[in-house]
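[09:14] KT: can someone run the structure on this one? pasting the chain below
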Amino acid sequence: MPLHLTDLRADHLTVPLALRRTTPRLTWRLRAEGGASAATAHRIRIVQASGDEAHDTGWIESSDTALEPEGFAGEPGTEYRWHLAVRADDGSTAEASACFGVGLADWDAPWAEPAQERVLAEGPLMLGPEAFAPAEGASAPGERLHPPRYLRQEFELPAAPLSARLRITSQGVHQPSLNGLPAGDGLLAPGYESYQHEISVMTHDVTALLQEGSNVLGVILGDGWYAGRISILGRSAQYGDVLRATWRLEADLADGTRTVIRPDASVLSSRGAIDWSDIFIGERHDARAATPGWDEPTRDAGLFAGWTPCALVPVDVPLVPFVGEPIRRVGELPAQRILTTPAGETVVDFGQVMAGRVRMRVRGERGTVVRLEHAEVVDAEGNFLDNILGVNKDQADEYVLAGDSDGEEWEPLFTFHGFRYVKLLGYPGTPAPEDFTAVVIANDLAQTASFSSSHARLDRLVENTVWSQRSNFLAVPTDCPQRERAGWTGDLQIFAPTAATLMGVAAFLDRWLRNVRVDQAAHEGIVPIIVPMPPAMDDPEHPNAGLGDIRDAAGWSDAITIAPWALYRHYGDPRFLRDNLDAMRTWVEHQTADAAAGLPARLDPETLSEERLARQRLLWNGRMNFGDWLAPSTLDGSRPEAEGLDEFAAIMLAPQLTAELTGPLFQIRSLDLYAASAEALGDAATAAQARAQAAAVRAAFAAEYVGEDGRIGPDMQGIAVLALAFDAVPGDVRPRVVARLVELVHEAGIHLDTGFVSVPFLLDVLWDEGHRDLARALLVQDTAPSWLYEVDHGATTIWEAWRAVHEDGTVERMSMNHYAFGCVVDWMMRRLAGIELVEPGYRRTRIAPDLDGVLDHCRAHVDAPAGRIAVDWRCDGATAELTVELPLGVTADVVLAPGWTLDGPADLSPGTHALRATRIEGSTAS
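[09:31] RB: done, structure tokens below
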């Protein structure tokens, strides 16, 4: 059957204009009409815009659907078209083509720095009570914030261009336009990154926006993450207090010449209708001050009489191409209802917690001020509740009406909020739902998986996880989209497998991992607990803003080994390992050196035997870390150690009880993944050395902490789970550790008591050790702490804490949008739906539906690199019908639980397969 080529990509992106790598990884998908057919060879030709051939691979005998063209290195600032030909086993060929560009390696344009008030540096420097409550007598935002700057550059072109690219970036966030029209559809560019080390340049195709004669480039500059209030501290000006922009507008003309427009003395600046704007605080827009046409050509020079020239400042930080999907408007939600609360407040309910802002329609008198305050919840009585504590966490926007008799429409530009509910103040007339739309913003990542089953609440759990990922994969992978919006490394490593399953995160996380490496290099090999690390939390005089010794942390800093491995497994792209292997090595060497240099504070080296001292010197256990953070029993007072503790002391109980063990356990994990990564890249010697070190650490851990009775350290679920998951328990003791874990789960009333870093492994450990029913019971448990307790109490996202809303409706003032505990969706896709990768990139997949569990039917899919893998199964108790869809390039094994037999082949080739399974008479559910 004929082959069809689809989804041609370069570095995981469709038609990227400016890649960072000069040799991209080119990928494609194959589809056959009428059935499966095998590809046997492929050929790639790369040509320049002129038509000159830059590279020809020749025919390569391979069925692969990915290639890094050996011998090709793209010229910086050049665009190419690549032509792909694939030959099928019947001799027929299929052809397709796509484009990619290589970004600039050097930058030759200055910053344009407008006249402006410097950003006021304010906010706490230490974590403490003052960081979680606004200071008494704090002045209004308008007295502390400055207006964004509007920049205008007019220039001439002798003709409309054949092709034009705008390369632009800023210290601050920017919104560009040409001749009054938006340049691209991105928002809050260039996003958030480690600005002191490098800044990304956005590239836009602006061919259609330029014209012969006069043209105008407009740029609006706001504080953003660079100068605005960020992190848990809510402190401003952490990277700088002056806003700047730089650009190169390249226009290629029909006569073969190129015109390049850079900032020069012609760039003028003024303020506009935005009085102030801040990522955390919000935005105020005064429509009376609007200046229509400010970014369009005009012959009336008097319109810009008050505008001032920009200073031209040399660029002193490396500028690199932005790679990935930009932040965009990715969805809209209409208001569900307008509430009048018991307290008399007017509140708009959008029905879904999200990250974004509100687009509002309003009609009223000139000068009327409408205020929109954002929150994720209402309280037990139904009143609006600002659930986010902290300095500068206002989440409030204001709009001053121009008084247009036809009505006005407005959406903020340089801010976003975490919210479901919006309280209206000053709205003229009676608001109607149709006057309000929630605009969802995020990096524009495609959703790549689905899950639909006979269990509506589990379906909602998956949907909640998708919403939390969408809300938090915004600029960087954040913990929450309101209080901190910070790239906590622990949250990401916990969630990485689920993230890669649910959305196309390859380019997004590739860019973030580059920031991890940059920040690691700046911290002498230590991987920070937050990336980008906010400078205010990196002050030597206030280490980690008061977290002190927790400068790196088990399960947080290990993101540098865990995340690349998860991405390699999902996408089959070895560059995730190649790019990060040196950083992995640096990290495990740091763990090893730190282990040798220190001991737990409770141990006196003078009293230890030589043998025990040698063991302890192998274990990375001498430094405080977060441990199994937020283990439920340390917070609810059920552990004896928790008696009489205040809230802060209770939060720190899990670190005190478990940090000594989580350190070496994640040391083992990182050594294992470093070894596996080296082996995958063909470095057998490094792999063997790392495995030997891991074996020594395992033996030392077992000797120091694993009891013959199966109890480990403080005898908590999470530590047992991690020790079993990371194979840190000797084989002869393992059954007793498993038995003790099962006892602990039962003692907790069939509830999880796993903390932050152990939750991802709990259900897998129970499943693999033969306790499938207990794993299922934990999944569908509906009293706290549990996943379905949240669903049953109205959650539309994943909560920060299991009991964020109490049984009586009392709401804790914390985040209702933390994706981390949604890591269970990875387990659901593998263990319930039954789609599990075996080989990197899903080239070999296991189909293992849970026919004995809590579902009667399940339909799910994962978009693997080669195409869609889908299952649709239904079980009536004695028989099951199963449909499996596999793309070309993927094969699968069907594996059923004991007690079931498959009526058909278990080894599946590409195509669609209708299978039937029968329960063996007399067998019982596994």
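[09:33] KT: thanks! The chain is about 25% helix and 30% strand.
[09:34] RB: yep, looked fine to me
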